[in-house]
Amino acid sequence: MDNTNKENKKIDSKPVRKPSIPKLRIIPLGGVEEIGINCTVYEYGNDIVVADMGLGFSEFDYYGIDAVVPDIKYLTGKKNKIRGIVITHGHLDHIGALAYHLESLGYPNVYGSLFTIELIKAKIEEKTEVFKQMKDKFKVVEENTKLKLGSFMIEFFHVNHSIPQCLGLYIQTPSARAVHTGDFKFDNSPINEPVANYSKIVEIGRRGVDILLADSTNSLKKGHPISESEVAKNLEDIIERAEGRVIVGTFSGLVGRLYQLLEIAKRHNRKVAIAGYSMNQTLRIAQEIGYIKIPQGLIIPVQEIYRHPPEKVLVLTTGAQGEPDAALTKMASEDYKGFELHKGDTIIISAKTIPGNDRAVQTMVDNITRRGAAVVQVEDMDLFTSGHGYQEDQKIMLNLIKPKFFMPVHGYQYFLRAHGNTAQSVGVKESNILISQRGSIIEGDKFGGFKITKKFNCEPLLVSGSGVGDVGTTVLQEREQLASYGIVIINLMIDKERKLVRPPFILTKGFVYVKSSQELLDLLSQTVEKIYYASSADFDTTIIKDKISKDISKLVFKETEREPIVMPILNFI
Asked: What pTM was estimated for this model as a whole?
């Protein structure tokens, strides 16, 4: 055979683009510049599938911000194209934004495993109208499900994490195939669930993957996380040796950990009390779907703890991060539903402290020890393991999937770049690694590969009470100023002749203690009066209020070095 024929065979073996086939678009709306807010849009022609819709928690939570959710403006104008939202697992950073966005998206179908769907229902049922509209739109899928959504064909594979029934996604379109891992690790001795489905992951890799999107949370950590089985042994060792009550603080979403603890309690004849609404809710759902079987009589109400010998009681509680309203925090500083900590109690904190929560956790631990109880934390021994794989887990996923292109997700930019370096170490070309940001538009197909083509502004939305996105930078700055320095309200009573009926009245909140600051308040009142009469020639109320606000702010700072909000109010009688 001559060289010309050989060359023709090589050319013929390459995929040939059909002109009518569009490229696959991938748009991360969150989860690529932070931990949380996970939400990725897959768009092909006139069809859209969304993978996850999670929330995050803001550094501004002390200023009335309850949560942070993805900005979905890219989707709201295309909601007629949305064929479904597919959820990888039931943690809030993957499901928490659904309650806030489903209405704006036209109430699309939501797909997930049984446990995931039940958790979503529990979160959404508090929003009556949304739950009513979505009642028949929650769809349960299993690992062997093949889901056809418009031009998309989606298959699933089981992965280990820290919550039951986690699923990775194999997303296929006529022009490209993508894998979206969700949160994962490879644990070969997991608790109460099978290991990750290696054979199916290998099969997907053999069938071909054009781009892989994979969890980057622990991309800075070498090796593998320890197994949940190892954590269980350490927990049991402490509980077995404890002579009094044992109180374990952990995350309510760590269902495997809760299962371990219930099994340990059964083996050591301890009654179990559950403290915390979210933990009770999670265990109820786990029991309803058959993941956990709780023998009758094992669980007791918190109020009945005192009816049992201390060495026969185990308490499972939320609050491992020192959250002010969580059960463990309340136990540490006061009583919780009549339950108080005392000498002889052993408190196990089976959770790593999230950065930013260090002070709250330390305060809680100090309060616990003041009551005479002993505290055991992860620093003392392995009482916690991550649900996110380390570098060696990430290498395994990359080697099994063998993607042509790689897009790390779920993490800060530094984490994504570290994951990119890991991908290079197993043979992925640097030019084929895409480090995206919120609002990046990644386009490509199996013919020409993938690249970032453009980017739009996509800042997360702040949730405050029932409002979503209505609190912006200005409102946050005002809240911060109020929290830091308080407010000074200046009330002016003006008659028909535009004269002051009485000296300006100064009311403060969070600024100074009035009884010891009367001299300062008198100075402010006198200064306001002078400003008013000096500015009232043209009698433009806007100009008068601005002048009072600016001049009094300067005077207050000069006298106190504080910057409260100054609010003049003009009343006409």
From this structure: 0.86
